[in-house]
Design a protein that fits this description.
Number of helices: 14
Structural class: alpha/beta
Strand content: 15-25%
InterPro entries: TF_GRAS
Number of domains: 1
Order of helices and strands: EHHEEEEEHHHHHEHEHEEHEHHHHEEE
Keywords: Transcription, Transcription regulation
Family: Belongs to the GRAS family.
Mean pLDDT: 75
Distance between the termini: 23 Å
Radius of gyration: 22 Å
Number of strands: 14
Helix content: 25-40%
C-alpha cells in the first residue's frame, strides 16, 4: 500500500492491553451472516456511502507447525490448534445513506478462515493471509449481484513468463509481443516515444476495438494499457489536486488491501515481513515496530496474534505509524489512522498483548530515536512493505528522499528492517522499455487473479481499477507526478547495501514453511516461491511479482 497517513504534529497514543479469506471469494450472504455489532471502521469510510462491493477480510501470515527441535527460528509459535483461535472481533454497524435493507447501514467485520496443513501424521490449523481487513457489504446485496468496474480496467495476458530473476540488477527481459493486441500496444508506445501522435492514435483505436474490461485476460490488459497510453497523450486538466492524489484516496487504499488479500504473491510477502519482525523480538521483553504505511492494520493484527502465541510472551508491543505530511492524502486520513489504532488496541486486548499505538507526523529528515519514542530496552524493527517504491530517488530530486529515508532508518539502529516490493523495472527505464515492462508485469498479475477471484467478482473489479491507476501513473506520468517507481530486487539490494544495511538471509527454514503454506491453499500450480540472494520471490507462471527480504 501507499505511504502512511499524516497525523498531528504531536503523537497520539492508543493504549490497550493486551480475518482471512480463502483465495476464492465467498458470497456476500455468507459474509454478512457471520455477525454484527456497533461502531464504524476506517475501511468502511474508505468505501463510502452506497458501496455494493464485498471486501473480504484478510488474516495472519502464520506458517506451518514445526517441532521445537526443528525450529531454530521459532516459527512454531505462530501456529495454534483450532480450539485456541482467538475470538473474532465483533462486527460493526455503520450508519449510511446508501442502499441497505436493514437499519440503513453497511455491515463491517473480521473473518478468519482456517486451513489444514499436514506435517507427518499431524495437522496444524493455520490462519492464512493478512488479517484485519474489514468485510464491507451492503446489506441489500445478494449473491448474484455483479458490478461494473469503477473505471475502465484491464486484465492479464497469458504471456507473463520470462522475467529475469528477482535478484538481477539489470532490467527484466520483457518478452516480445505474442498476440495482435500486444503488438498494437507496442506499436502505440513506440509511436508515443517517437512523438508520432497520429500513428499512436491509430494504434490505440485498433487496440480499443479488441479490448474489453470484462473480457478475457488479454482483453482486460489491452483496456488497461490503452487507457494508460491515452492518459499520457491527453493528460487530465489541472484541478488543483496532486496528479497522483487518486493513488492515496480511500478507495484506492481499500482496493489495494483487497489485492493483498486475494494474491498469494502479496499475502506471503507480508507474512515473511512479519517473520523478520518476530525474529527481531526474540529474547527481548519489548518490541517496537516503526511503520511508514500501516494501512488498514492488517499486517499488524497478524503480528499481534502471533505474539500472543509466543512463550514467553513479550511484555509489550509498541507500533509507531509515521505519516509524512508531504504526501497528498485526504483530510479524513488522520482520523482513519486513529481508527486503525483503536481497532488494533481492541484486538490486542482480546489477545492479551499489551499494545501502545502512536502516530507521528514527520518528514524523513526529522526521524530520530527521540522523535519516535524509542526506548533503550526495546527491540526495534522497521517495516518497509510497499513503501520505498513510492518515495522519489535521485532521478527525481537532487535531495534523493529515498536514500535520505534509508540513512535515517539506519541511524535508528533497528534489529531488523523488512522490505517487500513489487518486482518490476519501472523507475528509471526509458518510456518504451517501462511501458513494455508494465505490460508484462501487470499482465502476469492480472492473469493470476483468474486463479483467486471470479471473473465477475465485484472485488476483482475494484482490484483491477486500482491496478489500472497504478499502471497509468507508471506509464503516463513523469517527474514528481510519477509516484509508482518499482525496482527489481537487485537494485534494492544495492541501495540497501550502500545505505549501510547487511542482509538477514531468509533460508530454507523460512522458504519451506512458506511453500507449505502456499500448497495448503489448494491447487494453484501457477504460483511458486523462489529463493534468491537471501530473499524470497513470489511468482506467477515463472515471473516474480513480489520480493521479500530482511536487513539489519
Amino acid at each position: 500500500m501507499a505511504s502512511g497517513f499524516p497525523g498531528r504534529d504531536s503523537r497520539g497514543s492508543y493504549a490497550g492491553s493486551g480475518a482471512d479469506r480463502p483465495f476464492k471469494s465467498r458470497s456476500r450472504a455468507d459474509r454478512t451472516a457471520e455477525g454484527e455489532g456497533e461502531g464504524r471502521g476506517f475501511e468502511a469510510d474508505a468505501v463510502g456511502d452506497g458501496a455494493a462491493a464485498a471486501a473480504d477480510g484478510a488474516a495472519a501470515g502464520a506458517l506451518p507447525a514445526l517441532r521445537e527441535a526443528e525450529d531454530p527460528h521459532g516459527f512454531a509459535a505462530l501456529v495454534r490448534p483450532r480450539e485456541s483461535h482467538l475470538p473474532l472481533l465483533d462486527f460493526f454497524r455503520m450508519p449510511s445513506s446508501g442502499r441497505s435493507a436493514e437499519g440503513g447501514g453497511h455491515r463491517v467485520g473480521l473473518r478468519r478462515d482456517r486451513l489444514r496443513v499436514g506435517r507427518n501424521d499431524a495437522a496444524a490449523h493455520l490462519d492464512l493471509g493478512r488479517p484485519f481487513a474489514f468485510v464491507v457489504a451492503a446489506a441489500a446485496a445478494d449473491d448474484g449481484e455483479s458490478e461494473q468496474p469503477p473505471f475502465p480496467l484491464p486484465l492479464p495476458s497469458n504471456s507473463s513468463s520470462s522475467n529475469s530473476t528477482a535478484s538481477s540488477t539489470a532490467s527484466c527481459s520483457t518478452p516480445p509481443p505474442s498476440n495482435p493486441s500486444r503488438q498494437l500496444l507496442s506499436d502505440a508506445a513506440a509511436a508515443v516515444a517517437e512523438g508520432n501522435l497520429a500513428a499512436a492514435a491509430a494504434s490505440l483505436a485498433a487496440v480499443r476495438r479488441a479490448a474489453s474490461p470484462r473480457g478475457d485476460a488479454e482483453q482486460r490488459l489491452a483496456a488497461m494499457m490503452a487507457a494508460a497510453l491515452a492518459s499520457r497523450l491527453d493528460p487530465p486538466a489541472p484541478s488543483g489536486a496532486h496528479p497522483a492524489a487518486d493513488l492515496f484516496a480511500a478507495e484506492h487504499r481499500f482496493a489495494t488491501q483487497l489485492l493483498h488479500d486475494a494474491s498469494p504473491c502479496f499475502k506471503l510477502g507480508l507474512a515473511v515481513a512479519n517473520l523478520a519482525i518476530l525474529e527481531a523480538a526474540r529474547g527481548h521483553p519489548k518490541l517496537h515496530v516503526v511503520d511508514f504505511d500501516v494501512g488498514s492494520g492488517a499486517q499488524h493484527a497478524e503480528l499481534i496474534r502471533a505474539l500472543a502465541e509466543r512463550r514467553p510472551r513479550p511484555a509489550s508491543l509498541k507500533i509507531t505509524a509515521v505519516a509524512d505530511p508531504a504526501y497528498p492524502l485526504p483530510a479524513a486520513a488522520a482520523k482513519g489512522l486513529r481508527d486503525v489504532g483503536d481497532r488494533l488496541s481492541k484486538l490486542a486486548d482480546r489477545a492479551g498483548v499489551g499494545l501502545r499505538f502512536s502516530i507521528v507526523s514527520l518528514r524523513a529528515a526529522e526521524l530520530d530515536r527521540a522523535s519516535l519514542g524509542c526506548e533503550p530496552d526495546e527491540a526495534l524493527a522497521v517495516n518497509l512493505a510497499f513503501v520505498l517504491s513510492r518515495i522519489a530517488d535521485e532521478s527525481v530530486s537532487p535531495a534523493n528522499p529515498r536514500d535520505e529515508l534509508l540513512r535515517r532508518v539506519r541511524a535508528l539502529a533497528p534489529r531488523a528492517v523488512a522490505l517487500v516490493e513489487q518486482e518490476m523495472s519501472g523507475n528509471t527505464a526509458p518510456f518504451a522499455a517501462r511501458f513494455a515492462e508494465a505490460c508484462a508485469h501487470y499482465g502476469a498479475l492480472l492473469e493470476s487473479l483468474e486463479a483467486t477471484l471470479g471473473r465477475d467478482s465485484a472485488d476483482r473489479a475494484r482490484v483491477e481499477a486500482a491496478l489500472s491507476r497504478k499502471a497509468t501513473n507508471t506509464v503516463a506520468r513523469e517527474g514528481p507526478e510519477r509516484v509508482e517507481r518499482c525496482e527489481l530486487f537487485g537494485k534494492w539490494r544495492a541501495r540497501m547495501s550502500m545505505a549501510g544495511f547487511r542482509p538477514l538471509p531468509l533460508g530454507p527454514g523460512v522458504a519451506e514453511p512458506v511453500r507449505a503454506r502456499l500448497a495448503s491453499t489448494g491447487p494453484n500450480p501457477g504460483f511458486a516461491v523462489k529463493e534468491d540472494a537471501g530473499g524470497l520471490g513470489f511468482s506467477w507462471m515463472g515471473r516474480v511479482l513480489t520480493f521479500a527480504s530482511a536487513w539489519r
